[in-house]
Design a protein that fits this description.
Layout lengths: L1 H9 L12 H15 L5 E3 L9 E6 L8 E7 L19 E2 L2 E3 L7 H17 L7 E6 L10 H7 L7 E6 L5 E5 L5 E11 L1 E10 L3 E2 L8 H14 L8 H14 L8 H11 L6 H4 L3 E9 L5 E2 L2 E10 L4 H12 L3 E9 L2 E2 L5 H13 L4 E7 L5 H4 L5 E4 L21 E3 H17 L1
Parallel strand pairs: 3-6, 3-7, 7-18, 9-17
Antiparallel strand pairs: 1-2, 2-6, 4-5, 5-19, 8-9, 9-16, 10-14, 10-15, 11-13, 12-14
The protein binds zinc ion (ZN).
Length: about 425
């Protein structure tokens, strides 16, 4: 598995912009060849207009084909790396001091390698899963999946026939936290939802003219007024069932007493839990964050138009309220368009799937507590959930006994402890063998 990861890292699958990740094809071909050599029947799929943006999908028939299927998805692309800032070359796949180093080591070629290792182990030992397991190694997660997960869902939904649940990016790893009585607690946060993503474009039109002759129809001012309202707006608390069980579960595990029955109680719980509440600080309410502003071309010219983009995130269960409230906040001087509108994702926590994830963690890591969580951002689960698939974030890594921690995701010196990979593989194998 470690060697699989190192080889995957050496395939530079940098995703710089839409339509640009040349290395995805070579990585996908390597994965396809490995699977075919082990006796599986993978398919390599890419959009006709971008044959190098390749995906690999394989279905492993289960022992009982009447059971609903499971999807395992992981992306092969990575974000760019600036080699000059790194301790090691980012695409060398170095194994050093108990770590595997390189871009993708934790996001998320580690999960690709663990999943491949399980498949190859099944082939070598003749074991088979109880139910059909569909595995998708996808392109383009680091942009928007339009060459990867989203395209597969749009153009090849037949691949996911009979699939009821999925595991994928972000969740399951073992963390060590402090109980109020001082002892350490092992927590595994399994994602069971994501805030929705809306990208807004705001356009103010006005009258251009000389900067020395101000007038009331300046689009820059109209846009700034709208951005001020929208950016400073504090959205009301909107506690989804998922975030509620996240906060309650985390508090219980750490021995904190919280009362989530009203808004003040929720605010107090967030305060009490602090960093242990993790992304719940962002997922208890919607957020509207101006990120891009474009206007003007010369200091003494009032432009005719000013444009901004706003990153909007919305917890499960409040999309309609948010959409209804936005126009008043933006005002009537500015035109508003949605450039992206991906609804929130929420999978049940009281499901046999979640129970199986919990069992796998608790069997391999005695004493660990599994807590559900809602992600603040998005993953490919956004695409797969539109097929009615219950999507969980589960790509587990265990603790390193020497205290090393995975790090550098989207940053410098991305690396993963070998011991964490090995423990993660045991958890993943247990889950896929028993689910
Ligand atoms: Zn990722």
């Amino acid at each position: 598995m470690v060697e699989l990861l190192r080889t995957l890292i050496r395939h530079d699958t940098t995703n710089r912009a839409p339509g640009d990740a040349e290395g995805e094809l070579a990585a996908a071909r390597w994965v396809e060849g490995l699977l075919r050599g082990a006796g599986f029947e993978p398919v390599l799929l890419a959009r006709a207009d971008a044959p190098h943006r390749a995906n690999v999908v394989v279905r492993v028939p289960g022992l009982d084909r009447s059971l609903p299927g499971l999807l395992v998805h992981a992306h092969l692309d990575v974000v760019p790396a600036e080699p000059g800032q790194w301790t090691v070359p980012p695409f060398a796949g170095e194994l050093r001091d108990g770590w595997v180093w390189g871009r993708g080591a934790v996001d998320m070629k580690d999960m690709c390698a663990m999943t491949l290792a399980v498949l190859l182990d099944w082939a070598a030992t003749g074991r088979r899963p109880r139910r059909d397991v569909v595995v998708a190694f996808v392109a383009d997660e680091e942009t928007d999946g339009s060459y990867g997960a989203q395209w597969l869902v749009d153009a090849h939904r037949e691949l996911f026939e009979g699939v009821d649940a999925a595991i994928g990016e972000s969740g399951g790893s073992i963390e060590e936290l402090r109980h109020v009585d001082g002892r350490s607690v092992l927590l595994s946060r399994v994602s069971a939802g994501e805030r929705g993503t809306l990208h807004l474009r705001l356009t103010a039109s006005g009258t251009s003219g000389h900067g020395s002759r101000p007038h009331d129809d300046n689009p820059v001012l109209a846009l700034v007024d709208a951005l001020h309202r929208i950016g400073h707006h504090r959205w009301p608390l909107n506690l989804s069932d998922l975030v509620r069980s996240q906060l309650q579960g985390t508090a219980d595990a750490l021995g904190h007493v919280v009362d989530l029955s009203d808004d003040a109680g929720v605010e107090a719980a967030l305060e009490t839990l602090g960093e242990a509440a993790e992304v719940a600080h962002f997922t208890v309410r919607a957020s509207t964050t101006p990120t891009v502003v474009r206007a003007g071309y010369k200091v003494n010219v009032i432009p005719g138009e000013a444009v901004a983009e706003v990153d909007v995130r919305c917890p499960p269960g409040c999309t309609e309220e948010l959409l209804a409230a936005l126009p008043a906040l933006v005002g009537d001087r500015v035109r508003m368009e949605h450039t992206v509108l991906n609804p929130p994702v929420e999978a049940p926590v009281d499901s046999p799937w979640f129970a199986a994830l919990r069992d796998a963690v608790e069997s391999e890591v005695p004493g660990a507590v599994v807590v559900p969580r809602c992600l603040g951002g998005g993953t490919d689960a956004k695409a797969f959930s539109t097929l009615g698939i219950a999507c969980y974030g589960f790509a587990p890594l265990s603790l390193d006994p020497d205290g090393r921690r995975p790090g550098g995701m989207h940053g410098v010196d991305e690396r993963v402890p070998v011991a964490s990979l090995r423990g993660g593989l045991r958890i993943l194998t247990r889950f896929l063998d028993t689910v």
